[in-house]
Design a protein that fits this description.
Two copies of one chain form a homodimer. The first copy, chain A, is about 40% helix and about 20% strand. With about 425 residues, chain A is α/β, with parallel strands linked by helices. In chain A, helix 10 runs antiparallel to helix 15 and helix 13 (about 345-355) crosses helix 14 (about 355-385).
């Protein structure tokens, strides 16, 4: 769909300059209108089609959210994102707080204005980064003391700080500050993390928010069904606007990931969106949608582009491989992305081979469009009552990576 | 000007896929129609407005040509190039011959098809790269034996090979294979280079070309007026389609560069385009246009983008500088490029600071559009009879770099 650049004038601090006109941008939606509508539930699975109304526009679910960690989806600009049908992107509290810092984002008028994405934004709380990136961390009652991964300076992030930053960022959906433990945690560590998560979720719930900003809780608990149930129920009691399943993209094998989702989902209300954080491959997105998940975010599309890997319905292919050097077909024959409409595998391979940035750009564009398009097809299939068939066919065509296949085989043998 | 993507189907090998519809793309122009029309000459200087008709479309001169060395203008895609008003781009014989190699480009149907730029392309011959990049070179009668900078393999490039490769690339303008000596050469070395250049130009002239392909001669001679005159006259006698002034972007101080052009230009015919290879800064482009130059190519716009430097009418500014961290103006207030229409200095600075590719992309876009726009303004000024005033004002506003200022001062003191 062609992207039209219509001037939106008179908005400080970019007064007098063009901004993107996007179909769904609007004024800040009244809080009472913030809602999630469940439009249809599949009969062959737990999949649902929904519509999430945020302060900066409507999001049809299931939805894949591109990750703009540092205020930019890697190598892709907002126009390209809109052309690809991107509805909502992610920003990262931990990183944006360090650079550019809240002074600048505040002066810019919030994150939407700073990055020129006048459409929905979800920010994560920084919990995952603190628990995985930062060094020398001391977990305290109301948050975590840690050293910046950049310059080693001593910082503190907890429910109050994380919600405060997200309020200033002005994202449409703010995530609670949680304790995200490694998948190798002991039962004792898992329990401690869950208790901390529940306590901190309560604190987050009490914090003031930006006008129209929603807050989502995050359920932890590893693959302990008792912990997953306990955590989910505690969050639901706090009446968040949506519920995420955390601890499902932390290096655990795929079967464990699915189990963690299956253990949590039954305790999440049907009339609120469910968000599986950090997931997944195209095939996993379909399977998770079938398990009742509505929202996803993953760095895979842009991260693997760096290595010249492209996602297709048949699995991932390495465009850099010698096999493609004189292959003048697009990455995927029926793909409507900018890369596939304009360039051949041979050319993209050449670009990647000689280190030309256009190669990385085009693979990122293709992969991102592919993920978004799969979600469009999932929504259409659920709406048309054909999701069961779609799901079956998708899995049949999609060749998982060796790693995933080995993990599945290992579980099957147990 | 909005870019419209209209399908052009049925062109092998991209049959069935969309290509860019560009205003001026057409079928290959009949050889007898290949021509340069001199439309107007400025009365206050030697500046001219011209129209060059090539096999893949028309080019209005003076023109700035973006450099797509390896088949891609760094970080910029063809759609962005067209939006910026790019009329013609460069490709590099030396690099493309090594990667992806002629087998692949041949199979793709030529360079235009391979990179999806169905508009004019000029290829340089590889002479400069051989004389500057490659190691262990042995200059022989019919070319240069050298070792590839990539893998050290022994290669040979001379008039026959260079024209042969360019014929296969199918560029609209092919450059002759010349001897481009360092500006520190002795008079003896300069003379030898000029004699070799003249001999090789004759050999190049005899080689077969792609249908509709033009060939330009390259005049060498350093700042020796006798050599410059001799070389230019010899090339003109060979009746090339256009004439380049070489050896003017090889590290010499600006005053020498201008002198070299001034020594050569009087001997070049008015009814053929003049091309100053590898030049220049925006201010230099205006000054060289005033001296009768019609065509320019330079890596500056994209190269300095890497360092966060942006070109403006007032000279170059370092967007990465701390001064801009909360500056919410565009790079240049009245610039119509994608970057200035959509992003602030503060945001771009942040992107550059954290290494996000979008920052590099946007600075490349701004700089390239700036260079192209200066040429548009030069053409308009010449056409309107206001070039003298335009030139004066441009020089008044443009603050050159320290390096250029020092060189000018040094010459003034001699």
């Amino acid at each position: 769909m062609p992207f039209s650049l219509t001037p939106l004038l008179g908005k400080r601090p970019t007064e007098g300059r063009e901004q993107f006109a996007v179909e769904r941008v609007g004024t800040v939606v009244e809080p009472r209108r913030r809602m999630f509508e469940l439009l249809k539930t599949d009969t062959s699975s737990k999949a649902r089609v929904g519509r999430l109304t945020t302060a900066h526009g409507v999001v049809d679910t299931p939805v894949f959210m591109s990750v703009g960690t540092q205020g930019s989806v890697k190598a892709i600009d907002p126009r390209e994102l809109r052309e690809m049908g991107a509805q909502i992107i992610l920003g990262n509290t931990y990183h944006l707080n360090i650079r550019p810092g809240m002074d600048i984002i505040r002066a810019a008028g919030g994150l939407h204005a700073f990055i020129n994405w006048p459409a929905p934004i979800l920010t994560d709380s920084g919990g995952f980064q603190v628990f995985s990136l930062a060094t020398i961390r001391k977990i305290q009652a109301h948050g975590v003391e840690f050293r910046s991964h950049l310059d080693g300076s001593l910082l503190f992030l907890g429910p109050k700080e994380a919600m405060g930053i997200q309020r200033e960022l002005g994202s449409d959906i703010a995530m609670v500050f949680d304790d995200c433990p490694p998948h190798t945690s002991t039962p004792r560590e898992l329990r401690a993390a869950v208790e901390r998560t529940m306590r901190w979720a309560t604190e987050c719930r009490e914090q003031p928010r930006a006008p129209g900003q929603m807050a989502f809780g995050i359920a932890q608990g590893g693959t302990r069904s008792d912990l997953r149930e306990e955590c989910a129920k505690a969050l639901v009691a706090l009446e968040f606007d949506g519920y995420a399943i955390g601890g499902v993209s932390v290096g655990e094998p795929e079967p464990e990931m699915m189990r963690a989702v299956e253990m949590t989902e039954p305790f999440l209300p049907a009339n609120k969106p469910r968000y599986a954080m950090g997931l997944g491959t195209p095939a996993q997105l379909v399977e998770l949608a079938a398990r009742g998940v509505d929202m996803f975010d993953c760095v895979l599309p842009t991260r693997v582009a760096r290595n010249g890997t492209a996602f297709t319905r048949k699995g991932s292919i390495s465009i850099k491989a010698g096999a493609y050097k004189a292959d003048f077909r697009p990455i995927e024959e029926d793909c409507d992305c900018f890369a596939c409409r304009n360039f051949t595998r041979a050319y993209l391979r050449h670009l990647l081979n000689v280190g030309e940035i256009l190669g990385l750009r085009m693979l990122s564009v293709h992969n991102t469009r592919m993920f978004i398009r799969v979600m469009e097809e999932v929504r259409a299939a659920i709406t048309n009552g054909t999701f069961g068939e779609f799901r079956r066919q998708f899995a049949e065509n999609y060749v998982p990576t060796q790693k995933v296949l080995l993990a599945r085989a290992a579980v099957a043998e147990r």
